[in-house]
Structure to design on (820 residues):
């Protein structure tokens, strides 16, 4: 069972994601901040990190960078409420796998999660595609 | 008695007759008139002089006129009081009065004839012892006249302001008038018999000695200005005229001296001379040109050095000429006319008269001319002031003023512009802030929206099979999706955009922009007509920028139709004048149109016809810049009252050669293209 860590300072969002992903038979766990997440990551191994980009204490990009230092094989998905090309580019350049703009439904999120976990298994990143998809999703 | 012989008697009678004859001859040849009358007033005899004195030629005439004597003559006293007949000389004598030197004026009534007689007379007994009245008459008319003349002369002499002194041959005063008393202080009593030397001051002795020599020779002497001593020892300035006095036989018997006090006259003359010197100096040193003309002819009498220098003619060249002869005033006819006007009014003034100097330099002068009495004639004084420099200074001042005013006007205009610009900048910055705020709000909204979306999705999963509930959740999900899109659009318009070329379908972008404000357009009662060509090539462009442009232009069109109207959005393939292939977007409104004046300024940044605070004046400028950045064109055609057509031409390609045609036309490819463009 794949382990997913969800980080968002929007606690309700974090909770609903944890709930929904758990319902999809993932082992999901949530953190309200980047520092809390890093602590968890140091203690435990996760397959996938889903994090908000803009958080008050530590930004998603900083978190990804630190997380990859802890576990270089960690696959990450970025969520953000303020979609912009440069944040996609930056996230991708940091090693984020996918980019999901808020708001979203599980119908959108699940394929991304599946692909990300697949890529972890295949060890391949599809940064371009991830960026392309996420950009396109700005104006569905 | 008988003893007296007849011969003796005859002898005596003869002697008596001779005596009477002699007496008669004597009477008739007296100088004086003699009238004899008896005591009854009966005239017994008038001698010949008496007849002549009364203007009668002979006794016959007298006899004829005698009865009417009182009607013919009027007697009066010397002072003019008319005498009654009773007071006439003869009746007075008959009345017993003895007359001596009674002077009476006799006048023939109704004529100029008038004499003054002196009467004497008394009653005497004639040979027969009978009393008779005799009257002697002396004509003193001439003597009286001479006396009166003499009196008049004396009074003239006495009343003269001048001292008139008679001196004998030795220089002793023999007459001394009031004027002499006034001048020298001596009374006539003191002066008479006095030597003239007493009045000669020591320093005038030589002069006087020389004068005496002349006087001795009987010459008339005139000293215009000499000095004399008064009784108090004071020196007075006098002019003296000494004339010889000769007796009837021509012998020099003395002299008359007329002396006049000229102290005051000297003082006046001195003052006059001083004044003359002062004014001459003024004339010579004046920094204005001064010209003196004689009145009837207009000939130059005098000219001051300043004018000589100003005109470049010498004084000799100017004097004696007529004013218009020298030609400095140009038109001679006009000068003559001006001179005539001057003569009539006595004054003429030109504020600014052009004048040419001898060497041809042009001068501006102020010319003031007055005519005034000087002595017996009239002269004209012309003051000529060189105002060339002043005029130049005034002119440059005027120009400076004009420049200053222009600068001021520009400054004012700039201030107005600046004020407007400040407001616009404020407006712009407000918009920028609004943009940031919008972005921030959109972001904040996305989180709750995400939460709601996820929760609704979960809940919807629980009602599968319940069609009614499922529909309800579906609607909620759709509306959430709409909100998400709206927020995404807002974000796109508000955030700082980068130049990001992607491949896009213009129709989609126009549609997107229209959708964004369609609600607003509907509220404005504006009908939107889409005339999109079915077959249209994609173009390379920056999506955000295009959307911004379309939004701006559609907003402008709606602002031009405040009472509603129709907006046609027409999109079709087109070609530029240079043959470049592209797409044309026409936005045709049915609004008020744009006047040519406004049209001329419409591209200026910050130019707006919208209400203050409503428009930034940046919309069109930004739009054009954005289109030109795409190598396209933005043009506006408008006819006031009919509406405005804005045409955008965009070329198909925009500097980027890769992936022009995406094989599957997917959004993915476009997005990749955009990213690639950026990272390049």
């Amino acid at each position: 069972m794949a382990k997913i860590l969800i980080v968002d300072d929007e606690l309700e969002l974090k909770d609903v994601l944890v709930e929904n992903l758990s319902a999809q038979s993932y082992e999901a766990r949530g953190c309200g901040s980047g520092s809390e997440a890093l602590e968890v990551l140091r203690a435990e191994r996760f397959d996938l990190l889903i994090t908000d980009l803009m958080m008050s204490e530590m930004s998603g990009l900083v978190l990804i960078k630190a997380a990859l230092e802890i576990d270089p094989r960690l696959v990450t998905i970025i969520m953000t409420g303020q979609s912009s090309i440069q944040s996609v580019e930056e996230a991708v350049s940091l090693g984020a796998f996918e980019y999901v703009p808020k708001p979203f439904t599980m119908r959108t999120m699940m394929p991304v999660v599946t692909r990300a976990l697949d890529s972890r298994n295949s060890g391949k990143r599809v940064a371009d595609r991830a960026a392309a998809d996420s950009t396109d999703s700005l104006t569905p | 008695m008988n003893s007296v012989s007849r011969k003796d008697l005859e002898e005596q009678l003869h002697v008596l007759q001779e005596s009477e004859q002699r007496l008669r001859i004597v009477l008739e040849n007296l100088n004086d008139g003699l009238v004899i009358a008896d005591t009854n007033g009966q005239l017994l005899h008038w001698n010949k002089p008496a007849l002549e004195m009364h203007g009668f030629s002979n006794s016959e005439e007298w006899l004829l006129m005698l009865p009417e004597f009182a009607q013919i003559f009027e007697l009066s006293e010397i002072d003019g009081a008319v005498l009654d007949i009773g007071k006439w000389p003869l009746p007075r004598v008959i009345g017993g009065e003895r007359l001596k030197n009674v002077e009476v004026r006799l006048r023939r009534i109704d004529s100029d004839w008038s004499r003054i007689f002196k009467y004497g007379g008394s009653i005497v007994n004639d040979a027969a012892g009978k009393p008779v009245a005799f009257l002697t008459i002396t004509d003193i008319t001439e003597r009286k006249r001479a006396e009166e003349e003499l009196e008049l002369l004396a009074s003239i002499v006495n009343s003269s302001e001048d001292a008139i002194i008679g001196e004998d041959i030795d220089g002793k005063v023999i007459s001394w008038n009031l004027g002499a008393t006034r001048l020298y202080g001596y009374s006539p009593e003191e002066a008479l018999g006095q030597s003239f030397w007493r009045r000669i001051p020591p320093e005038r002795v030589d002069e006087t000695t020389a004068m005496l020599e002349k006087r001795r020779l009987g010459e008339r002497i005139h000293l215009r200005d000499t000095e004399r001593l008064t009784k108090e020892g004071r020196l007075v300035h006098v002019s003296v005229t000494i004339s010889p006095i000769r007796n009837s036989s021509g012998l020099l018997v003395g002299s008359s001296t007329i002396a006049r006090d000229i102290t005051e006259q000297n003082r006046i003359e001195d003052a006059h001379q001083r004044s003359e010197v002062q004014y001459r100096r003024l004339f010579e040193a004046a920094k204005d040109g001064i010209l003196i003309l004689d009145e009837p002819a207009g000939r130059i009498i005098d000219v001051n050095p300043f004018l000589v220098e100003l005109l470049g003619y010498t004084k000799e060249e100017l004097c004696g000429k007529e004013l218009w002869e020298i030609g400095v005033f140009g038109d001679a006819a006009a000068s003559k006319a001006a001179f005539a006007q001057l003569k009539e009014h006595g004054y003429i003034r030109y504020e600014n008269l052009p004048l040419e100097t001898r060497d041809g330099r042009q001068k501006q002068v102020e010319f003031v001319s007055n005519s005034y009495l000087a002595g017996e004639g009239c002269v004209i004084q012309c003051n000529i002031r060189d105002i060339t420099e002043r005029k130049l200074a005034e002119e440059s001042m005027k120009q400076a003023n004009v420049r200053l005013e222009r600068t001021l006007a520009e400054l004012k205009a700039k201030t107005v512009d600046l004020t407007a610009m400040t407001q616009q900048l404020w407006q712009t910055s407000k918009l920028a802030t609004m943009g940031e705020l919008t972005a921030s709000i959109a972001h904040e909204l996305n989180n709750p929206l995400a939460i709601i979306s996820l929760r609704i999705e979960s809940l919807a999963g629980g009602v599968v099979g319940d069609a009614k509930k499922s529909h309800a959740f579906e609607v909620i999900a759709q509306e959430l999706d709409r909100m998400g899109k709206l927020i995404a659009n807002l974000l796109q318009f508000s955030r700082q955009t980068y130049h990001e070329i992607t491949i896009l379908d213009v129709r989609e972008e126009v549609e997107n922009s229209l959708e964004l404000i369609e609600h607003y357009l509907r509220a404005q009662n504006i009908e939107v007509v889409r005339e999109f060509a079915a077959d249209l090539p994609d173009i390379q462009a920056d999506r955000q920028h295009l959307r911004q442009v379309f939004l701006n232009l559609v907003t402008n069109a709606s602002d031009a139709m405040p009472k509603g109207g129709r907006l046609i959005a027409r999109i079709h393939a087109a070609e530029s004048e240079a043959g470049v292939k592209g797409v044309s977007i026409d936005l045709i409104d049915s609004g008020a149109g744009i006047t040519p004046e406004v049209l001329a300024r419409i591209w200026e940044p910050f130019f707006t016809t919208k209400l203050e605070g409503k428009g930034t004046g940046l919309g069109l400028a930004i739009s054009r810049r954005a289109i030109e950045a795409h190598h396209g064109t933005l043009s506006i055609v408008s006819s006031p009252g009919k509406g405005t057509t804005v045409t955008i031409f965009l070329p198909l390609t925009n500097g980027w050669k890769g992936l022009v045609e995406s094989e599957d036309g997917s959004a993915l490819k476009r997005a990749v293209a955009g990213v690639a463009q950026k990272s390049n």
About this structure: Residues 124-140 of chain A have pLDDT under 50 and may be disordered. The interface with chain B takes residues 10, 12-13, 16-17, 19-20, 23, 54, 79, 81-86, 88-89, 101-107, 128-129, 131-133, 135-136, 138-140 of chain A (CB under 8 Å). Strands of chain A lie at 3-7, 27-31, 48-52, 75-80, 98-101. The radius of gyration of chain A is 13 Å.
